[in-house]
Specification:
Blueprint (H helix, E strand, L loop, with lengths): L11 H24 L9 H26 L4 E3 L12 E9 L1 H5 L6 E8 L2 E9 L4 E6 L3 E4 L2 E2 L12 E4 L8 H17 L2 E4 L3 H9 L5 E5 L3 H13 L3 E3 L12 E5 L1 H11 L2
Parallel strand pairs: 1-2, 8-9, 8-10
Antiparallel strand pairs: 2-3, 3-4, 4-5, 5-6, 6-7, 10-12, 11-12
Length: about 270
Amino acid sequence: MSDLLQTTGATASDADLLSGTVTAVRAAGSVLRERFGDVVPYGTREELMRALAANDDAALDILRPGLTRLRPDAGWVEDELDGGELPPGEWWVVDPAEGNVNHLHALPDWAVTATLVRDNRPVLTVVHLPLTGETYTALTGAGAHLDGRPLRVSPAADLGLSIVATSQARPDEDEEVVRRVGSSITAMLFDALVVRTAVPATLHLVNVAAGRTDAFWQFAGARADLLPGALLVTEAGGRISDAEGRPWTPGSGSFLAAAPGVHAEAVATLSR
């Protein structure tokens, strides 16, 4: 388990805070569901960015006031591409439309997420999938749940019998990182049963937490991509590290979440 997530930072009041966070995230999801339908056309990068921003803004109009009422003194991070450590204190790390480009293309793989981070440790998280109505939640020390039902990672013990997943590099990512992503996929194609590659990262991670997928890895990555799933997987009994097996933090250059029985094999494959 990552040192980042070995924390007793949650308090009794955090359970009430989680409930309020669920309400705000579901409300934002309803707004995005109403906007979902036909493929949104765009012909230039500028048009794409405007369409993405329109979805973000629609959800943030609900999320920002709702979460600010819950924690008025908490900082606010809404850029889904930001990475690295946060300053001390409490921060809301949100992705108002995780998988936004999928939403624009009328694909179902998108979500709304909000995570409260306390002194660089995630305390609670909510991941809501508006099209299915599913809500994944985790509270430090209290487990991970899907609509109130406990989640548990896979009992898999053989990478060769496992379904694994990764996400692609970010737009304008460093060439070395892009090549590392490609070589890691090739390595996993030799060692794992099935390799899935798609965005967004969070939806892969909820599958790890639910025991549907056995491992997920990513190079680089942003806080909003990884913090929600990191807490969900940890509270569901999974292991979090970087790709070399070292403790993961938001400043790490890689990320691995896996069922305990295949974590070491996944590290060995990614380290080749």
